[in-house]
Amino acid sequence: MNLEFTEEMVMLQDSLNKFVQNEYDFETRQKISREGIGYKEANWQSFADMGLLGVPFDEQYGGFGFGQTGLIVVMEAMGKGLMLEPYLASVVLGGQLVQLAGSETQKEQLLPQLIGGELKLAFAYVERQARYNLSDVECRAESKGEGFVLNGSKSVVFNAETADKIIVAARTSGDTISQQGLSLFIVDPTAEGVTARHYETYDGLRASELNFDQVNLDADALLGTLDQAYPVIESVIDSAAAAICAEGVGVVSQLRQKTVEYLQTRKQFNQPIGNFQVLQHRAVDMFMAEEQMRSLSYLAAIKVTEGESHERIKSVSAAKVYLGDARAIVGEQAAQLHGGIGVTDELDVAHYVKRLGLLNTLFGDRDYHLQRFSQQ
Amino acid sequence: MNLEFTEEMVMLQDSLNKFVQNEYDFETRQKISREGIGYKEANWQSFADMGLLGVPFDEQYGGFGFGQTGLIVVMEAMGKGLMLEPYLASVVLGGQLVQLAGSETQKEQLLPQLIGGELKLAFAYVERQARYNLSDVECRAESKGEGFVLNGSKSVVFNAETADKIIVAARTSGDTISQQGLSLFIVDPTAEGVTARHYETYDGLRASELNFDQVNLDADALLGTLDQAYPVIESVIDSAAAAICAEGVGVVSQLRQKTVEYLQTRKQFNQPIGNFQVLQHRAVDMFMAEEQMRSLSYLAAIKVTEGESHERIKSVSAAKVYLGDARAIVGEQAAQLHGGIGVTDELDVAHYVKRLGLLNTLFGDRDYHLQRFSQQ
Amino acid sequence: MDLNYSPEEQAFQLEVREFLQQHYPKDIQDKVANGIALKKDDYVRWQKILAKQGWVAPGWPEQYGGPGWTPVQKYIFDEECGAANCLRTVAFGLVMLAPVLMKFGTDEQLEKYLADIYNSDVWWCQGYSEPNAGSDLASLQTKAERQGDHYIVNGSKTWTTHGHYADKMFTLVRTSQEDRKQKGISFLLIDMDAPGVSTSPIVTIDGMHVVNQVFLEDVKVPVENLVGVEGDGWTIAKSLLMHERTYIAQVPRSKKQIERLKKIASEERYNGKPLIEDASFKAKISAIEIELMALEMTNLRVLSKISAGEAPGAESSLLKIKGTEVQQAITALLMESVGYFAFPYNKTTMTEGWQEDPIGHPQAAMLAPHYFDWRKSSIYGGSNEIQKNIMAKAVLGL
Amino acid sequence: MDLNYSPEEQAFQLEVREFLQQHYPKDIQDKVANGIALKKDDYVRWQKILAKQGWVAPGWPEQYGGPGWTPVQKYIFDEECGAANCLRTVAFGLVMLAPVLMKFGTDEQLEKYLADIYNSDVWWCQGYSEPNAGSDLASLQTKAERQGDHYIVNGSKTWTTHGHYADKMFTLVRTSQEDRKQKGISFLLIDMDAPGVSTSPIVTIDGMHVVNQVFLEDVKVPVENLVGVEGDGWTIAKSLLMHERTYIAQVPRSKKQIERLKKIASEERYNGKPLIEDASFKAKISAIEIELMALEMTNLRVLSKISAGEAPGAESSLLKIKGTEVQQAITALLMESVGYFAFPYNKTTMTEGWQEDPIGHPQAAMLAPHYFDWRKSSIYGGSNEIQKNIMAKAVLGL
Prior knowledge:
The complex is a heterotetramer, with 2 copies of chain A (about 375 residues) and 2 copies of chain C (about 400 residues).
Chain A: H1 7-23, H2 26-34, H3 41-50, H4 67-80, H5 87-101, H6 104-116, E1 121-124, E2 140-144, E3 147-158, E4 165-171, E5 182-187, E6 194-201, E7 206-217, E8 222-223, H7 230-265, E9 267-268, E10 271-272, H8 277-306, H9 309-338, H10 348-361, H11 366-374
Parallel strand pairs in A: 1-4
Antiparallel strand pairs in A: 2-3, 3-7, 4-5, 5-8, 6-7, 9-10
Helix pairs in contact in A: 1-4, 4-7, 4-8, 5-6, 5-7, 7-8, 7-9, 7-10, 8-9, 9-10, 9-11
Chain C: H1 7-23, H2 26-34, H3 40-53, H4 71-83, H5 91-104, H6 107-118, E1 124-127, E2 143-147, E3 150-157, E4 168-174, E5 185-191, E6 197-203, E7 209-222, E8 226-227, H7 233-241, H8 251-267, E9 269-270, E10 273-274, H9 279-307, H10 315-337, E11 344-345, H11 367-373, H12 384-394
Parallel strand pairs in C: 1-4
Antiparallel strand pairs in C: 2-3, 3-7, 4-5, 5-8, 6-7, 9-10
Helix pairs in contact in C: 1-4, 4-8, 5-6, 5-7, 8-9, 8-10, 9-10, 10-11, 10-12
């Protein structure tokens, strides 16, 4: 038993922390978020150069083979820097779907490009009526000749605007809400019949509504086994949920640290407000939530890597539930303890608070995961 | 609109407060609770003399006709004094069942005796498997000649040991859990086939397990309409639930007051511990819970008196939910803020905490009432 | 105990309801219902309608144009306004400054300011907080130095709501450096267009501009703009906090928001059914409803005491804390109700005239900004921590 | 990151498991599983079995008879003991006093006391708290005055667990009245049968007698019973708090209690179905399980640091707070699980040999007393408020 990071993980962590420090100060981050595509293409190339884009992938495709542990190191840094690059969409979701479900040909074709930074992916799985139910899919792909024709809509697809390929979950058989009958397709966003509406999210990330109107797909657009995509989707979403829990740890640790610093320096009634016991205990609650959150984030990473699906689901949902608690204990309290300044656009605190809010919702909120945990 | 008590209510309140002060100091209370029947017969006679036993009943039977408002005044005092007399069992439950369901003959026969202190009632409605579901009744009464024969068991019947008559909810038709087919019977506890096991509850009240084995009942043992008892039961239990919420207000106000006094006088680190901001805010939380609890207790009383069943259910369940919150915010914190002394048998605080625990469970706990509220 | 209104009160309720139906502008009602940002003109328009009816200043004594309502009538008015999604009148002139002038002002000041406040012809803002004086308001540093018949004011005020709309500002300024910091504070009225006054917008977490920083640089203020005597500013400001305590809980508004939440939750779907049928989501709504029921009843108990002639105590702190807790909890559930569709952010969705198709539920676009923005409610007006300090001392004697 | 045990650790786990299966007395196991009050003899019997095996003092250095386990082995032992419903060894002698003697005691003291502690032949209790020194332990007033080669001790100690069982008590006493109250405190060993020592039972909220008040009236204590030097008592007591920090969370015990809770909830019925199928009740269990999973993992992270040679920090406060919160939440849900059947109270149901039919669920009788009794866990060992003060200072620098 050993819960320390390996030396190579610590190195990865160090270089990421340096990157955040040098390239991702808050001013720069705000500037990036207001620009056209909402992130900096040069940063993406730096990611590729640092090998970040290959962190979870097998070495045979040019990856580092660091698996989920590597992902949590990257994602914690993403959280600390409130970074905007499409790592979650392209690497964690897109890339891992290819790695898990793809044919050898698809993997050889896509992963090296992705790792090199030349190819970006996005994953379209949310639908208007579905809320957090991954199998509530109305978007349909029907056989047509050797290929398929795709009809329907997808919502809140992160970074679809800049993706070269979009992986779409569609129903190929079965009733709505049935886990049976789902399939994955690799769709070219420039194909005829694909229309998109791009927008900014409240924490500065980018997403899109997509519509597919009689979109023709070749036979090799199918990713994985026809009708059998559900376990793959669930597994990759769990990996991504564990990854954003690590991102949450990064956010939470920043909020805790910034709040403690504020308590130490802000003076009212002729003393640092950190002298007030109520605020001290509030800060301790934040610290404890951070530590517990970190623990569950590690546990989820371990179980995503090696656990059976039952254990994976329990630990991922546990971490997600705690992330929901952290939204209140750390996020809301960070704003409260900063007073007025904590709810202004100019201070980074507000933006960490918003990111934490988004992470709570993403891949299912606290309630959803508490119920999912209960049902195991 | 007027939420002040009438003059006669204030008088009733004053005389009850005096009674608690003079006759029910904590030492006396503890002595009473350890004696044989767990309360003082002389007190019951004082209650009769003060007119307390007639508070909710119509004047034509010798009552005061104060209704639910009168009950909350009495019950708040019961809570303040941690009183042990069977007011809830005999007057609030038993007497009100008779008043609501009884024939004119039954009312004329029973209520004046009850109000005079010569007759005590108890209500047997809980069953082993039922938890808080009032219609989950397996105890059966079958027609036999002009009368009935009763078989089955009842659990946690308060003050059955000292009751002269026990009102029993039994199934006369319908499936278990069906609201249809319930009836009420007046049973003589000394009748053949009635056996009992009496015990103390953790807060010093008395209750019993009852068993009915082929107990013969006359036709006039039936209280109210055959098969149609459910609405009566629900309505009287709601009245009783509102009453114990008022009792809870009494308990909570004592706990808050005693805790604040302790914070003012207990010294640690060379100062009253009430100087510590965390404890101050905890005391404020107790105060706010007390005020909100009192508000909902009044609202429930008003709606039990004049509301439609939908409004009655909502307001009673709301008050019961808040009582559950008060268990944590006031009860558990009162113990915590008193430190070690708060969890000793010798200090009254522990006993208020226990009573609050019992009141939370009685007639359904927080969860039960939150769901019941939700379903309205 | 009786929750029913008297026949006279019922008649009054009906009168208010009918008036609102006939006279409250539909376009403003739609904005409030949909969480669209309000402009100065919306307020002015509605306040002028109310002024014409004689209802714009329920708290004013009749001699100054108040309607002479009982506490219950005021409550009914507030409730009906909430139910009709009315714009709340802006408090600075009508509710905050006017009573101060009535109590501490000179006849000349009353003459000069009151009618314009009543008719919303002059717009006021409040200059209390400073960058280094938030919870500890008394440590404010903006200086007013007497020079002949003027004060020369230097310093800066912050969190000034509607500062960019305002014609005038009532401020607390330091007129002397005594040992007790409360002592040297005075209450001064400043023209926003006086030379040396400038404002700078503060953009809040929701991306909107409502509050401002106000800079005061060698601003010349005539001594007749002093309210009360020099050094009495703290007393005046404190007296102001005693006003309108039963409306602080904002119960009618929260009831309306719960209605809205239930409507959205019945329109959103989850597992093929309306979200509101999800037991866990329902229970969360219920928990808030129960807290709000308690709060409403506590509010009514205070009102009942006032009606009976008792002076209200420190209940306003309780009403403020519980009121904001409920408000915040509702905004959180509102955001939660639309799930992923709280994500899209477009500032223009919150402003008048936005016509695009909504993404997800038609009301979704404002829910996240409102949730985040509403964090402020437990901070402003004396943070909830400060309110608890007050209660610990005033109510519990700790 | 790896949660798996090494092959050696797995072998050790198996060894412990088998030992417990063979040697842990079934009657004691039943008592622990059913929440029956434990007697001194139960502890002595089990501790002597462990002593014989060489496992009674996992924290002791090998030179004094410790087993020489790694931190992970200690953790495994603790986990297996929890899973087997083992009695926890009584800490006073083995875990608290012994390390103090090893660090601060004379050779004569080690010679005199250590073997009896190891073999549970002499029973110790702790004399720290006093009626007026609880959270503020350093304000203790029990006086020890030097007279020749004795101290004369006067005062009183309280919350003395097992005081009525104990042969000896280690105490903190005041040996001088310096200005800093921590300074004049010394660490003294007192015979419980010395003239002038008397105990008086304190009955707790559950009706049971475990703790005591101890009165000390002109008790003559030989100076050789002083541990360390005079005035060093506070330092010694503080060093003691650093021991055994990873076991403070009591994770194995809580896991066992959740198992028990689930079992009871699957046996109780509600609306004709097992209670555990009620979504709301289930969700409440889940929320505690999740907190416990986090706590276990935090515990392991601390352990992993210790194994890697790092000195542990102030985590013990976190483990104590979260540990007791989980424990208390479980007792609350256990009580809740049996509904009305938590009401019957009969002290004898909690003592050995009770044979009557249960009322309601067979385990119901102990659940309310345990819930109420467990309130103490957030009070003792430094209240959770004190723990937060410690963390605010030590970890956050506030």
